[in-house]
Target: Phenylalanine--tRNA ligase beta subunit
Amino acid sequence: MIITRKWLAQFLDLENISNDQISLALNSLGFEVEQTYDLDALNSELLLGLVVESKPIANTHLKINKVKLADQILEIVCGAENIGVDQFVIVAPINSTISNGLTLTAKTIRGYQSQGMVCALNEIGIFSSSLTESELKNIYQVSDNYLNLNTLTGQSVKPMINLDDFIWEVDLTLNRSDCLASFQLLKELANYFNLSITNLNSEFNHFTNNDLKLTVEIDPKLEQFIRTVAYSEYQLKKSVKLNSKDDLWLKLNHTKTTGDIINDLALKTAIQTGQNLIVIDQNKLKDFNLEIKQVRWNDLEVLAVVSNDQIINVIGLEVEEHFRADNNSQNIVVLMLNLDPTIMRKQQKLLNTSTIMLQRYTKPINPNLFELANKTFANELDYYNLVNKASQVKILKKTFEQNNKFVVDLDRINTLLGTKFSVSEIQALFKTLDFKITANDQQLTFEVDENRIDLYGINDICEEIARLYGYDQIKEQPIDFKTNKVDNKFDLKLEDKLTNYLIGLGFNNTKTYSLTDHQSAVNWNLFKIQNLITLEKPLSKLRTTYRTNLSKSLIDTAIYNAANNNKQLKLFEIADIYGFKELKQRHLAFLTTSDIFQDKLSDNKISANFYYNKAILEAIFRLYNLDLNKLEYQINQQQIDQIHAFVNATIKYDQHLLGFIYRLNPDFEAQHKLEQTIVVEINLDNLNKFANKTIQIATLSKYQSSKRDVSIELVNDIKYSDFIKKIIKNVKYLTNVQVIDQYVDQKLASENKKSLTIQFTFNSFDHQLTEQEINDQQKILQKNILDLEITIR
Model:
């Protein structure tokens, strides 16, 4: 971004402020000054001259010219084809030194003594990249509609056209793309030096109602990318030539002028306000029905403004010549757009160029700048007495509403910054920055400048206060670290054993990203995490919120691998889940999909299934020394769509939630090319809480154990964990109980039953059990079963 001293001086009193002070101010405010240019120092002496005679030199491309400098006439040989009589030109006299280091001396050329040089802009330090091909090879003609140049010949031309200006080239960070409007930098400097801004859009205020019936139809596919559509109309007076001051100011801003004053002033408006103007000659339109859509242009698919299938403007470039306003235009339409920067960055890549308009379209800028831009453009036209009639802005689309109000306690600001600001001191920091700050006791309400769309929350407000106060003014203090009590390492040892156990079973240890999109975090919030953490400034919409589970991350990993034809997977991850209010949970998730075992020689294989994962899960519970009789598996009928409606269970221990086991919905599996996929996730913090960490060596009986199998018919609605406690009541000598078989036939299924075979193991530590003792206990067992009205097969 370019800022010049002469431009600033139109609005600020800089009499007592040096260029070095402005450089210091810009750097202090966070705008890094990359380079400075002192135009005045580039050329020792440049004078205004008037060409009074110009004759060609025979057999050459040269001309001998008589140039008036006050009362003096100089003869100067010049090779520029555009030099002619009655032109005001820039003359470098004898003994002057110009920007390329050349010191002028009297020379005889083709028999004529040349007494100086008539200059082109690139010869006196103006960037060649800002000049047209014609300007690169021709001399520059000075123009000004308010100065009587006839009376000024022979005087220094530098102050007349601002060749004595001083330039700052400022590097803008992405969050301050609002300063692609030079008015924003103006406000920053005014605030820094405590100066009042004058003459800012204060001249023209004769706007009429906008009666033009213009429509702009947006392709539905592009609707989400078009934020603002607005327009105004003007009736113009007879055109004049652009003053050299404005012409050179545009060139110093790395902009090639067009030769049409209307378009040049539109460019000046864009640089000052940040809002691009698409200026269309109203009389060249067949009708007032425009479209914004993708079209073919030079073998490229580009975004354009179209009328009757004719391209008016490839957005980001100049208006097409057939529709462009020029010096003969009497009625113009000024179209103002704001588009999503992502689609415009694609456009810029396609066009492979950088223009004033593309620079502003591709950056996040306030999309509601149309009023400021229209007023500024009207003022620029009015300065040249070009306005016959100017209309107000008519808004066709306005979708962006910025949250620009933030409430923060003074104590919070001072705590974050390590300062002792008062309310009045903070208010004084924002004097000319279009921030409105009100105070209610020690609470401040900030209504921020609508151009500052980079401010999202209280932390940004505090950072803004620090920037304006000066980072170097804030006293450095060491960070106060609060250490947490180190937990017993026993939990970590168990976790290491758990990790080794899963790796030993052939699982791959996976590490996935902790951030996900907000919708996924909410939808997959199986553990009902409260107060989700959402980033204020996410780098991507896919990474906005801390995840609420590990399962979704493992499933995404499986989907990615399946898409790359790697479908036989056994994955696990151990990681933390976070929420506000210092919430931190340690979770384990593991997943199996496709074949968990395959022997290609024998063509034997085992597919992933619910009971395989359940067996692993219960092995983990035994590692943590849990009483498996206290476990409950409850089917959840209200699962999310991605989970199988019936092959799922909520895992509880003594009525406390441990986790979940489930199969993915077959439709979801098919959609993502997954085979049967079983997922388990448990809360390791809860598991550690219920783990029996006091490990005692069990006494081994030296006597032979005996086993009895009992088959029963159990209604599906009865929980195994509930009835097993009741049937072993008062039964002695039991050392183990386990289900060894499950059977369902058509008859049982019709009765909503299943057949379970349960094995009971009997033993004693002090004597060998007799058959009679075992049979007596089995009778108690059978009586308990019958009391529960359960059928023994």
In short: The longest strand covers residues 226-236. The domain at 706-792 is CATH 3.30.70.380 (Alpha-Beta Plaits). The chain is about 25% helix and 30% strand.
